[in-house]
């Protein structure tokens, strides 16, 4: 790094070597060692956060704004590294007590793939600028296409900005299919889209961003297992058409972010086709939002009878049930694998797949509109259809993870998550009867539970529409107290919560959402052996909330 005397080429020391000399390599590796060792020193498997001090006062961000300026002189990288490590102090880390949400640890293969990409810093805008990324991208698209049952010779896709980016591009495709002029003339106002009440808010955002407006997004009811109620889809599509609208896009969520509800892609396709045909319309584009759940496609070809990986019977059964609901994924026109979720790679590594690569031409730019790229490329690789211009070669990280884990590696990891989750459910049922599991129909990696202030299990009544809005809200507030109690100690064990598990009808005919606490098995370090301790901790805290409640009633009573 630059010394105090600015010799002629000191700026070169900011960069990896040109010629691969050993001295510069060792210096680079030492700097990386400093970071890795620094994080290791902060690790604390008995809590959630890394060690280190962080005082986040009310004026924390304001103070940062006031005190931050670019240093006038260069800083030694060792010192910069210390500052970087300081950023990581007290950072949440994926210890066994990290149970909050779909926020995975980045695996070693995933991180190394990123490093490989950074060492050449190719730009996936064009294969000539980023040949390594392009090669990896074509490979992983083929691998994942075959995994879900797409014909890899017909399918296509690219790495993009998240599951949300995939939903957004699915919508762009849908618009272009129904209005080929739309890319030039704008989007017609009578287009409607559909997703379930449990779907991710990505489509809501995409409606805003494409100019269709979120009022034209129709939310379809869910069944108690958080899957789309296909009969309600039928009704709502008919309604839209009767009012002069055209249904163009349906997002089938195959693995909801909270409850892991799985929409039935086959039924949705069947219903959409039938209604479209009846009205002489084109069938809507169907995007399977498999950002989270799609990874269970790793079990598509698992031999559940021979069970070669020797999963325990209850785990095997759960995996088979999930696989049963997932098996029609390949009927969707497009889908997504968020590798940054269950693919175990760092952000951002999302893969958008289309069943027919030709669809992408609908949203491509003409050659004269992309003057920088596309000429003298190596083949069919051009990316005028991506919303991004420059793109990172995140495909290299995906490639690395797919090779390192292999099908069996992913199967074992997912099965471990499922097994630990089943153990949580069993322990909750046994030791904490006040906690009602509200996504019991969905085996998977998440447990949602809800507590009831009068100690009774009110869940069935809520589902059946027999509860008043006031009752549901009272129970929601009670659960919110548990969120508070657990949230205050989240550096000890980090649970998740949701204020939107299932929309239910109230006795008065209105609707309301149910709040629930969440155990999300996402750390590879959470094992069945840890479940007992974690559930006892939960039990104590749930008892605390009941005690507070009783004290309050007592006070009011007096
Ligand atoms: C996480 C998630 C998304 C959004 O994905 P990002 O990668 O965060 O953009 C969309 N849909 C589902 C079902 C998800 O779980």
UniProtKB/TrEMBL annotation:
InterPro entries for the chain: PyrdxlP-dep_de-COase, PyrdxlP-dep_Trfase, PyrdxlP-dep_Trfase_major, PyrdxlP-dep_Trfase_small
Gene3D superfamilies per UniProt: Aspartate Aminotransferase, domain 1 (3.90.1150.10), Type I PLP-dependent aspartate aminotransferase-like (Major domain) (3.40.640.10)
Molecular function via GO: aromatic-L-amino-acid decarboxylase activity; pyridoxal phosphate binding
SUPFAM superfamilies: PLP-dependent transferases
GO BP: carboxylic acid metabolic process
Cofactor(s), names only, from the UniProt record: pyridoxal 5'-phosphate
Keyword annotations: Decarboxylase, Lyase, Pyridoxal phosphate
Top-rank lineage group of the source organism: Bacteria
Stretches for region Disordered: 1-22
Protein family according to the UniProt entry: Belongs to the group II decarboxylase family.
Stated name of the protein: Aspartate aminotransferase family protein
Native organism: Paenibacillus apis
């Amino acid at each position: 790094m630059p010394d105090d005397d600015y010799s002629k080429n000191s700026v070169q020391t900011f960069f990896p070597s040109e010629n691969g000399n050993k001295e510069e390599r060792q210096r680079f590796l030492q700097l990386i060692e400093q970071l890795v060792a620094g994080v290791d020193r902060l690790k604390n498997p008995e809590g959630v956060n890394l060690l280190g001090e962080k005082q986040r006062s009310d004026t924390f961000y304001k103070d940062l704004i006031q005190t931050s300026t670019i240093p006038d002189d260069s800083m030694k990288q060792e010192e910069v590294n210390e500052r970087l490590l300081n950023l990581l102090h007290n950072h949440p880390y994926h210890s066994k007590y990290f149970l909050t949400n779909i926020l995975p640890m980045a695996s070693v293969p995933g991180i190394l793939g990123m490093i490989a990409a950074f060492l050449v810093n190719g730009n996936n805008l064009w294969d000539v600028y980023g040949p390594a990324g392009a090669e990896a991208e074509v490979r992983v698209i083929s691998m994942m296409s075959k995994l879900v049952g797409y014909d890899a010779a017909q399918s296509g896709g690219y790495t993009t900005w998240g599951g949300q980016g995939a939903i957004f591009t699915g919508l762009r495709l849908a618009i272009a299919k129904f209005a080929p002029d739309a890319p030039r003339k704008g989007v017609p106002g009578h287009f409607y889209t559909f997703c379930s009440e449990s779907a991710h808010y990505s489509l809501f955002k995409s409606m805003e961003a494409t100019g269709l407006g979120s009022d034209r997004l129709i939310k379809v009811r869910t069944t108690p297992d958080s899957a789309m109620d296909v009969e309600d889809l039928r009704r709502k599509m008919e309604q839209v058409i009767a009012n002069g609208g055209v249904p163009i896009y349906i997002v089938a969520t195959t693995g909801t972010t909270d409850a892991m509800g799985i929409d039935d892609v086959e039924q949705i396709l069947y219903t959409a086709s039938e209604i479209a045909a009846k009205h002489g319309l084109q069938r809507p584009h169907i995007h399977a939002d498999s950002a989270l759940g799609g990874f269970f496609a790793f079990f598509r070809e698992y031999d559940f009878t021979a069970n070669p990986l020797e999963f325990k019977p209850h785990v095997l059964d759960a995996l088979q049930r999930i696989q049963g609901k997932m098996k029609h994924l390949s009927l969707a026109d497009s889908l997504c694998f968020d590798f940054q979720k269950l693919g175990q790679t760092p952000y951002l590594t999302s893969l958008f797949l289309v069943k027919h690569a030709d669809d992408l031409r609908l949203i491509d730019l003409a050659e004269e509109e992309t003057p920088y790229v596309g000429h003298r490329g190596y083949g069919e690789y051009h990316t005028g259809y991506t919303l991004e211009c420059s793109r990172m070669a995140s495909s290299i990280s995906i490639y690395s993870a797919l090779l390192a884990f292999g099908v069996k590696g992913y199967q074992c990891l997912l099965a471990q998550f499922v097994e630990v989750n089943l153990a949580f459910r069993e322990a909750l049922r046994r030791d904490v009867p006040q906690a009602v599991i509200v996504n019991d129909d969905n085996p998977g990696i998440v447990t949602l539970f809800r507590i009831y202030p009068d100690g009774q299990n009110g869940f069935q009544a809520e589902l059946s529409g027999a509860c008043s809005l006031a009752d549901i809200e009272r129970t929601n507030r009670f659960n919110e107290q548990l969120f508070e109690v657990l949230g205050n100690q989240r550096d000890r064990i980090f649970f998740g919560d949701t204020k939107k598990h299932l929309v239910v009808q109230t006795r008065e005919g209105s609707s309301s959402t149910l709040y629930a606490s969440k155990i999300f098995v996402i750390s590879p370090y959470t094992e069945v052996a840890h479940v007992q301790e974690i559930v006892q901790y939960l039990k104590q805290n749930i008892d605390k909330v009941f005690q507070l409640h009783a004290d309050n009633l007592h006070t009011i009573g007096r």
